Every structure is written in C-alpha cells, then in structure tokens.
Amino acid sequence: QKEVEQDPGPLSVPEGAIVSLNCTYSNSAFQYFMWYRQYSRKGPELLMYTYSSGNKEDGRFTAQVDKSSKYISLFIRDSQPSDSATYLCAITSSGGSNYKLTFGKGTLLTVNP
Amino acid sequence: DAGVTQSPTHLIKTRGQQVTLRCSPISGHKSVSWYQQVLGQGPQFIFQYYEKEERGRGNFPDRFSARQFPNYSSELNVNALLLGDSALYLCASSSLLEETQYFGPGTRLLVL
Q1: Of A89, A92, B55, B63, which residue is least crowded by CB atoms under 10 Å?
Q2: Is it the case that residue B97 has pLDDT exceeding 60?
Q3: In angstroms, rounded to a whole number, what is the distance separating the alpha carbons of residues B24 and A70?
Q4: Which chain A residues are within 8 Å of B41, Cβ to Cβ?
Q5: Residue B96 above 80 pLDDT?
C-alpha cells in the first residue's frame, strides 16, 4: 500500500462548480498536511497547510482533515478556468526543517468556461 | 522577495553523462530539499540539507549526490545518467519558522 493515495482524475467541471479533491494516507505518524497547485511545466505552489483535524478556509479554498479516517480533502468553491491545474496533496510526519514531504500522484483538474 | 531560483531551466544530456543542477533558497531559509518529478507522478524526495549537513535521503541510488554551501545554496549532481533520470528536478526551501516547503520552478532534464 502506498503511503499516500490520491484520486487519479482527470476531473473536468464547468465554471462555478464546487470541486472536491481527496487523498488518503496509511501512516498515522503523519501530522502535517498540505495542498499544492502545479500549473503545467511549473513548480508546485503552496495553497493550503494544516496540522489539525477539521476545516481550514482561505478564500474559495477549504482544506479538511480527518485523522481518524486518515483522509484529507480540498474543496474549491466557485471554480474558475484559472484553477485548471494539477493538485497535489503532500504529507509529512514532523515539523521544523528536518522532514520530507510525501506526495500523492496528483489530480489534473480542468475548469471549463 | 525573490522565491526559490533554480538553474538551468532546461537541460539535454546523453546517457552516461553527468549533470549538476543548482538552487538558491528564499532569503533567510537554511534548509533545501531536492525532489524528482517524473511525468504524471507526484514529486519524490531525494535529499534534504540543513545548515550544510545532509538530514535526509530518499530511495535513490548513489549516482545522486548533493551539497549545500555556506550561503545555503545547493547543488544536485547526478552521475552516469540513465534514460529514466529524465524528469523535472525540484528544489524546495524552508525555515525553522515555517513548517512547510516552497518550491522553485524546477529544472527539466531530458536524457537521450
């Protein structure tokens, strides 16, 4: 079993739709959860970061963590064509500067005008 | 403030050659990590350096090596290149004050 599993997509939605992106993980030692957005041929850009179960909201984005189920989600409200990108979940087991990120495979999202 | 910078942006090499990739972290960040991203996959951890010392190594062969300089910039070296080394190589920096990593634009390496 992979440490982090991410819904493969691709996902295609109309503009204005609510998008749900999901990951599951196997190691209960994972404590810190991030979502990155990666446009084609670019580096990943940090979108959301959280370390506790529950919801964290930032504008149109909401990150949700359920540690009991080892399940994390990213919701995008009122999706825009500019949201079209690959979304990567990333998880790590410790904070500070001595850790590595374990990534999901990424979900390719296309928002159609 | 400038973000993480990487050079070169693109590189073409042939099998058996050696390559050096460079990274400058965000000002004030003392930790640099390297990741390999093959097309269609998420980034895979290669190395982490903090204060010029290796703090972590992923499951990559000894052909991969890295170092960090006193100014916290870093180099990733790959010897005896294989076709399978073709990928986007990403550098990320972080500081003690933030528990996450910020990525550069990457170096796209093609091995022919």
Answers
A1: B63
A2: no
A3: 35
A4: 105-106
A5: no
